[in-house]
Amino acid sequence: MKKFLLIAAAAVVSAxxxxxxxxxxxxxxxxxSTIKVDEQMDDLEARNTDPSHTFYVGxxxxxxxxxxxxxxxxxxxxxxxxxxxxxASQDDIYFREKTKLTFGTLLIPVSAKxxxxxxxxxxxxxxxxxxxxxxxxxxxDAGIGIPGLELEGDDEVDIKDDVNKLNIAPFIGAxxxxxxxxxxxxxxxxxxxxxxxxxxxxxxxxxxxxxxVGFKFGGN
Length: 220
What we know:
By secondary structure, the chain is mostly beta strands. It is built from 1 helix and 10 strands; from the N terminus they run H-E-E-E-E-E-E-E-E-E-E.
């Protein structure tokens, strides 16, 4: 009886160890980033900017705790942000202002994964973004319909000192991996951190969609 129990215990431990697996990988892809602005004024409602179409690139480590559950950590870089295009005209008077915000962001996503099948998984977690650079580019085109009285401007300014450095964005996602380690994934990150540093100056959040491809190497 004791021998049987020892053999059963050894089998359980062996199965648990074999279910654990650590893999490293690289990934890159497309990001669609938007900014939501709430200026907290009675006559202005919260608004979303037009999306910025950009990229991300980085590395990951995945650890399978069992056949069904795992943890994943990543380090990515992405120039996130958003843009606005405001224009107005009346008779011969016109005004157009295009503004683009770009946050060079180091992303550290951490997630828990559930494996529906060996290759298909869903995940949930949070991305901790560290803003390394912040720039605002504004292009102005205005005039009153009289030759020589048009106004044009193209200016880019550093706004890093006006922006909070941490952007926390909870996310949900899905991934499909082939037997050779090639995988495809998609994820939506909803920004919750206020990026406006000045008190009582409103709220600005950054959310982004990521769709990409990557490759995982090896096993234990």
